[in-house]
């Protein structure tokens, strides 16, 4: 089993030398560069222990960068939450460098300040790369998971971290939200964030941030309050649900017309998804309506009419309550937190053609659940064959049956079985960690690993 290094939330950030960071990023080469911003550039790095990191190297701007480094470092040290990026290392050192003086042309020893912040590296990158309309591959359950995670993180900044000292992010946008392997969002880039001792409105003399996501009172009057982030959140939710142009579209029509339009588009897509039952379509549409109505409240021009993040969370928690209520009435088969539908693997069989069977997995628990599948590799291939599902998420498994020369009788059990195992795991376990050996070790340690055998059924096409 590949043992990819994992950071624990209790670990203190490592004090790394500039030499360490040069070695991990191939001397900050272009091939390792993954992004840039107003205060620095971000590189993908690999430490000696095999851990991947994202290195944010701040520009050499005396004074400003000192303040910027201290602000972001202090903010990151204060917060620990599953939906907020975790600081795993830093570099803050001054070194001597032999450079040519522009004025005299002579070479002199100059002091160079190196500042860098190091974070966990997420292969999927930022949310802005996944914004697309409702007809794309990103299904509703996955989009809802992203919306809920962003709201959870923002609620922590405003209320959970310290009710008397809320943190306002002030630059919340899709580019500052990273996605891990399971598409769980992580709020990042706290360079503009401010720690306030009160929740009253504050006035600033300069405008910073990304214009498309800042509220009107900040542009016109330089006002900063907790409703600043709420406005940004509303735009992000609209874009997650409707695509990158969704917010501009909603400004061109009355709110109710926009709500009806979004619901109608999602209704068509959900009904076209063969794996959704009519009840699941109806339930999902209620969730769509709740989210879009809440988002429109967040982007109200008058900030007094915008909800607080707590009120947003109350709306989302109602969705969770309704979902749990439906689950308690479900008669589907459950593994360890995992629901499998249907309880057999059915293939539409046609002679000399590949057949395809689909299983729907739903994690209806508050835990991360690892799953693994097994079938005769000479006859079947499965995608994905294993994975980790976040709490309250859905995933589809597509199995391909290789073409066969002779067709069996219709609707018969072909005597093959499709084995599925599952177990609750801790956050941080990845698909590459899931092996037969992992499940054996969990059982040996007294853990619970469940498995089910699904019969394989051929359905001959007419």
UniProtKB/TrEMBL annotation:
SUPFAM superfamilies: PapD-like (SSF49354), Protein kinase-like (PK-like) (SSF56112). The keyword ATP-binding applies. One of its GO terms (molecular function) is ATP binding. Keywords: ATP-binding, Kinase, Nucleotide-binding, Serine/threonine-protein kinase, Transferase. Pfam families: Motile_Sperm (PF00635), Pkinase (PF00069). InterPro entries: Ig-like_fold (IPR013783), Kinase-like_dom_sf (IPR011009), MSP_dom (IPR000535), PapD-like_sf (IPR008962), Prot_kinase_dom (IPR000719), Protein_kinase_ATP_BS (IPR017441), Ser/Thr_kinase_AS (IPR008271). Residues 28-322 form the Protein kinase domain. ATP binds at residue 57. Residues 337-457 form the MSP domain. Belongs to the protein kinase superfamily. This is Protein kinase domain-containing protein.
